[in-house]
């Protein structure tokens, strides 16, 4: 390689860095940083969900489509990218022994996956645990959340036999 080749390589690097910096600067101008403003427990604006009218079959479809890539649902299946969701009903949050949870989810480790907490989590995971590693925006539909929660509740050995309460 002669000096002309080295000059072309250096020029390419300088131009690439300039384009990269320019793109970053433009993105910062166009999409300004805005910290989360809502409280974790700001559930006054959320409608309550009714599990009596929830459709477990629809919840299974939604959960399979939106959660199935990262989570398993059957008893005995290992954790995937996310922990197994079998027997999640009333389970302590961040309690799967072989799974490494984010620090923001570990803050809730003395709480349980109740219907209320599942509803908050499924609505806006980043509002429930601001630094969660789960890359999921949430389910905006109350009906869809109720269906998914009903399905998740059916995946437990803590439920009484069908027809009993």
Automatic annotation (TrEMBL):
Q: Does the keyword Glycoprotein apply?
A: no
Cytochrome c domain span: 54-156
Keyword set includes Transmembrane helix:
yes
Organism of origin is Commensalibacter melissae
What stretches pass through the bilayer? 6-26
Classification via PROSITE patterns: CYTC
Q: Which UniProt keywords apply?
A: Electron transport, Heme, Iron, Membrane, Metal-binding, Transmembrane, Transmembrane helix, Transport
Q: InterPro entries recorded for this chain?
A: Cyt_c-like_dom (IPR009056), Cyt_c-like_dom_sf (IPR036909), Cyt_c_1A/1B (IPR002327)
The identity of this protein, by name, is Cytochrome c domain-containing protein
User: What is a single molecular function from GO for this protein?
Assistant: heme binding
Q: What SUPFAM superfamilies is this protein classified in?
A: Cytochrome c
């Amino acid at each position: 390689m002669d000096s002309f080749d080295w000059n072309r390589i250096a020029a390419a690097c300088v131009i690439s860095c300039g384009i990269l910096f320019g793109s970053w600067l433009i993105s910062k101008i166009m999409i300004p940083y805005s910290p989360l403003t809502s409280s974790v427990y700001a559930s006054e604006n959320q409608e309550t969900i009714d599990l009596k009218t929830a459709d477990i079959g629809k919840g299974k479809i939604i959960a399979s489509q939106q959660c199935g890539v990262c989570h398993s649902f059957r008893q005995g299946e290992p954790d995937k990218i996310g922990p197994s969701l079998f027997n999640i009903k009333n389970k302590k949050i961040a309690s799967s022994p072989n799974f490494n949870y984010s620090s923001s989810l570990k803050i809730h480790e003395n709480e349980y996956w109740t219907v209320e907490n599942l509803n908050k989590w499924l609505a806006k995971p980043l509002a429930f645990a601001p630094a969660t590693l789960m890359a999921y925006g949430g389910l905006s539909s109350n009906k869809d959340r109720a269906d998914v929660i009903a399905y998740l509740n059916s995946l437990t050995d803590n439920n009484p036999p069908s027809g009993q309460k």
